[in-house]
Amino acid sequence: MIAQLYTCDHHIYDLPVLLTWTVTHTGSVPCDSFSVSFVYEGDMGEVLEKASGFLAWDQGQIMLRGIVDEYAVELGPGGLTASVTGRGYAARLLDNESRPITYESATLSEILRNHAEPYGVTCREAADLRAGSVYTVAAGTSQWKALDSFCRTYGGFSPRFTRDGLLLAVPEGDGCRRLTIDAAAPVLSCVLREDRYGVLTEALVIDKTRNASYSVKNQALIDKGGQCRRVIYTPGQSTWAAMRYTGEYQIERSREEERTVTLTLPGSFPAFPGDRVILDLERMGLSGEFRVSEAENTFSAKSGSISTLTLQ
Q: Rounded to the nearest 5 degrees, what angle is found at the Cα of 98, between the Cα atoms of 94 and 100?
């Protein structure tokens, strides 16, 4: 993999051969991230100080376009080295708060215009969505949450970013790649985990203005003996549909990491978030189709290239 830095005064700098690197793709939140290290050269000081953007390439394809959060220069047993870390473009929306706004029959294009475009985010595709009621962005809400909540409430999907930093405000399609893993595959490790901690059994949504409440229950976990309730207060004059969605959304979010498979493979970039992995590992009792929610790819001279896929 090769990498470039973009400086705040619009220059491009090609980094030396990378000693180690890690690129993690989620497409959503927590956002994509990267970390690279390389031999420090004498003319790098000003470049690192002005570095604001990052671009990684692998075999002629963009693997990640992101922003620089931190750099460090270290003198140690391995000589003089430097490292740069940062995140994908979702960070631009996560790091900025919205002012409180109440919309009447807002459209997705209006939400994008107010909560994404002012922060240098370009939308490649956007669904044709319109709020059927009042949509409120509360004080302290990040620009990402303002956009994500609108898409989830009125479209049933979460927006995501491509590897080259473009926003996709549309549902996932069927054009994903499929990777088959069976007993013959070179699996380095595979971990099946079911974690019930924090998974909600009930979300009680209360509208204090109307003195109304709506309860959504996670019956599957209740049947297993689970008991974890949350009470959520919504802005005044919430519709029943919005209250039901709020409860279902809170339960689904709490369940996202309840059951996961972590798969480690040799090599780099075998799959990306949204791709499907078809598992047939009889010894672990694992079979079926799983969605890739996170893909972490690392390289070092000691271990070579390793890819870790989180499946849900």
A: 145
CA distance 285 to 282: 5
Give the per-residue pLDDT at 34: 98
- For 101-156, what is each residue's pLDDT tens digit? 999 989 999 999 999 999 999 999 999 999 977 899 999 999 999 999 999 888 98
The mean pLDDT value for 77-105 works out to 95
Q: Which residues contact 115 (CB under 8 A, 6 or more apart)?
A: 93, 98, 137, 143, 146, 147
Q: How far apart are CA 305 and CA 2, in angstroms?
A: 14
Whole-angstrom CA distances from 256 to 149, 157, 184, 220, 252 are: 16, 14, 29, 14, 6
Q: CA 312, CA 292: separation in Å to the nearest integer?
A: 7
Would strands 286-300 and 123-126 be described as parallel, antiparallel, or unpaired? unpaired
Quote the Cα angle for 304-305-309, to 5°: 145
Count other C-beta atoms under 10 Å from residue 158's C-beta: 17
Residue 237 has pLDDT above 70, yes or no: no
pTM of the full predicted structure?
0.85
